[in-house]
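task queued by scheduler; priority normal; single chain, no ligands, no partner chains; default sampling; output format set to structure tokens
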Amino acid sequence: MFERKVVIRLNEGLHARPATQFVKLARSFTSDIEVLKEGKGANAKSAVKLMLLGVKENEEVVVRGQGDDEQIAVEALCAYAGQVETAAPEGPAPAPPPSAGPTPFPRGMPASGGAAVGVAFVYMPDEIVAPRRTLGAVEVPAELRRLVAARDSVDADLKQRAASAPPDSPQAEIVAALAAIVGDQDVVARMEAKIAAGLDAVTAVMESGAEVAREFQGQSDPYLQARGEDVLAVARHVALALLGHRDASLAEAPAGAILLADDISAFDLAGIDLGAFGGLVSLKGGATSHVAIIARAYDLPAVMGFSLASAEARAARVVALDGATGEVVLDPDAATQALFRARAAETVRRKRELAAYVAIEPRTREGRLIEIAANLGSLSEIEAAKRAGAMGVGLFRTELLFMERKRPPNEDEQARVYIALAQAFAPAPVIVRTLDIGGDKTTPGITIPKEDNPFLGWRGVRFCLDRPDIFKPQLRALLRAGVCGNLKVMVPMVSDVEEIRQVKRLIDEARAELTAEGVAHETFELGLMAETPAAALAARELAREVAFFSIGTNDLTQYVMAADRMNPRVAHLNRADHPAVLGAVQLITEAAREAGIWVGVCGEAAARPEMIAKFVALGVSELSMSPASIPLARKCVSEL
């Protein structure tokens, strides 16, 4: 969770037109966002609820976000609505806008923080017009051969780009994802079927790509929706190969240029030295696109979905942008350039100040070491975590492995990911959470029945124990990754000691199978996510069964307070610092201390400076959070 206090400087406050614009900006983010005034909260993505809050000009409110882009979202909304009065110490504050009101600069969707000014490098390839030519029966075999040759050409191009990308980098992983689309049997079968039906190869490729992209875009998960862009990018490049054309190369951009494009695909950036750019602005795309992910991983200022006519973009010579607020100015005057350069300099100063703590061991003043680890969801986040000073991984969410494909990954596919993750951080510990779906998380290829109360239903370990056909391959893959020596595993949503015992029996079965098959493997330390009231109350019994506890404060707070964390009407109860929640944490840490096992915290509260002191005082020895929060957390521990 990330929040800031802000004094509203909008004329008439958050009413009518200003509220509508505020909501429009809020909806451009994936995080849940609310505005709080005098203890009452309203969903920032609902204009009606926001107006009913009755926020007037010059009144102070709190803007709170929770999710993957929470900090960017909160800072952008505060920059739009007024003057920040009190900044939460969770990260660098954005440069304050003029106190007379919100800056008049046009805005797009903030995707990666930081400000920059540079020469415009306009990248707007021509649109491919499908010929829609009808083939004669005799032409079909030759057209199918042309398709094979075009796919081979694109595949070879991707392999060349993969070879130039740093190993285990976000680019290398994304190139691999694009290559998988090129060879996907379903996608290829659609193309071939259309050609067999008499459609020319270029049209068949473009239409098939559009069909598959629509399927992704129809998903409820924003990350899966964004994968539709990757399918369209691959289809475009196969079509270009069929036509004997190639798009211009981004490698031609001068150092420090701002990339200004109608649309930028992961394909375009694959194999490109992103360090050569000063920033990027795309007229299309969103904060969950692969391009935005790459930009954040490389700390490149980026704005997506910026509304601009192509003719205006092509005429631009200089671009100024702020990736935290979404502001973009074409051909800025000297004063505007100075403003954006000052923002960039301030961001660098604050990052440099915190960077000093990356090299300092996070020990309290009495000498107690607190491990600061990273919460990750994919291999593409490894380098960012390392740069931030992560002392290992406190939570690796395996759901993304399942969500980003049409079917659950098999044992070999999972083992490769877990091994790569463990090796990347060795000898530091890496904690992998077993599949945690259900509640608000759905996965392609796995049907979960609709439930009236999904957060109280078939999720986490409950689902896994009922589906050993999905759970056991994951356990086998984790045992195979155990040979790395630094892998630990934790089980989510445990409420009863018998659940953890069943998991242990399945692990024993998986070990026996691997031994019989002659497959190399090693056991691992097994822990559990302490995130239910039952786990807190039964902590002494559970502590005798596991090697560690990791407290998930997000769900623990929700369940202890009986308050849906997505419901703004009860937002005032969603407090990890509430005495009842801290009482549950104390039950867990006391049970752990008696049993001689360690306790970590991997929920959002682990990154909040005021909570870090409380957790350390209660006996927590590990804190895990998003990479961006790690430097500040290290600083906080050093000052305790």
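post-processing summary
- Residues 140-164 form the longest helix (25 residues).
- The longest strand covers residues 115-123.
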